[in-house]
Amino acid sequence: MKYMLIPLLIIVSVLNVYSQKPSDKGSIYYWIKTITKPLIMPLIIAIYLSFSNVIEPLLILAFAFGWFGDIALMLHINVHKGTAIQSTEKTDIIPLMLGMLFFLGGHITYIFLFAKEAAHFTSHIIIYTAIYLIYILYAFMMFKYLSSHGILKQDQISPKVRLILKVAISMYMLAITLMSFMSFLRYMNDRLLAKLLCFIGSLIFITSDSVLSISTLGQNEKMSERYIMGSYIIAQTLIMMSYLLIV
Length: 247
What we know:
Layout: H1 5-18, H2 28-51, H3 57-76, E1 78-80, E2 83-85, H4 90-115, H5 125-147, H6 159-190, H7 193-216, H8 225-246
Antiparallel strand pairs: 1-2
Helix pairs in contact: 1-2, 1-8, 2-3, 2-8, 3-4, 4-6, 5-6, 6-7, 7-8
């Protein structure tokens, strides 16, 4: 029975990624992505629980945060005249903030999880510092872009909400970059192939979340929804596979 979970995840993921296109409410594409998206993280969790000999609670918690984040972002996205748009009304900002909060919780959980096996920072302090500074530079560039585009530039946003969003964005970018850096240190500890998969997954996670942020907060409708979901699923799957292959 457990072996059926893998093809089921593949089918659900392909259907979800394929359906990620501008569509009216009630259309077949709308219903496919609405039905399949909440199934992705539970299937990843089910595969991990079914095949792993030793269960890592923090990994399950991180996956759970991802599932709650998925649900919150589904509430945030509106479909209007065939185009996915993000409103700036209070009722829509709340799900967006909840989504960011849940994904932030997931990345913080990943940080603690990866840190348990990370190489000592002082072992190659100059190299590791240089690498982390690259992460910080990227986070700063993303923050500057999001601060000057989309929702944060609109007059409808109150100064209080704008400040909250800026703080949330800065915390989120720092968390996701630190998550990836910890994954890198985890790999450098013993350089196992399984841990390399996790590090690659963390990099894909950064690209996925960056494109998602530009699409939602930056309100850039040219960003590919298919890439966002496809890369997100691959990232979470690679992290799950990393722990399956080690134990």
